[in-house]
């Protein structure tokens, strides 16, 4: 890596400040892309990186609306919240998107505890046998 002159360095800095891209600066000055990138990094310092990825289908306001509806008890689950929010926004979202939003906030699903369905006659027999066992122990 050979050193560049102060004139070239200042021209790259001025072009960066004017808003030229690194590729355009490379074409104008004839310097390599590594050199232009290194000077750009010196000038810009600690620039924030963008997160990247796909933009969210739900805005912050939509997310807040869903959370408010769930926490106040107006809606019970993610499917109901999906139907509610799809009636408001133009682009429909899936129930999984709503679940992910609820999970980000700290709300998560709880599976219902399964209870065997017993006939009334069995309930009386089961209760009497339990009572007799507890009475025998005492």
In short:
With 138 residues, the protein is mainly α. It has helices spanning 6-18, 22-29, 33-44, 60-71, 78-86, 95-105, 120-137.
What key phrases describe this protein's structure?
single chain; 138 residues; mainly alpha; 7 helices; 0% strand
Cα gyration radius (Å) = 32 Å
Globally, the shape reads rod-shaped
SSE-based structural type: mainly alpha
Separation of termini?
91 Å
The helical percent reads: 55-70%
Low-confidence stretches: none
- Helix tally? 7
Please summarize the sheet with the most strands.
none
> How many E strands?
0
User: Which percent band covers the strand fraction?
Assistant: under 5%
Run of helices and strands: HHHHHHH
Mean pLDDT: 84
List the SSEs and their pairings.
Elements: H1 6-18, H2 22-29, H3 33-44, H4 60-71, H5 78-86, H6 95-105, H7 120-137
Helix pairs in contact: 1-3, 2-3, 5-6
Outline the structure in words.
The chain has 138 residues and is mainly α. The chain is built from 7 helices and no strands. The radius of gyration is 32 Å and the shape is rod-shaped. The chain starts with 5 loop residues before the first helix and ends with a helix. The longest helix has 18 residues, at 120-137. Among the domains are: 6-44; 60-105. Helix 1 crosses helix 3.
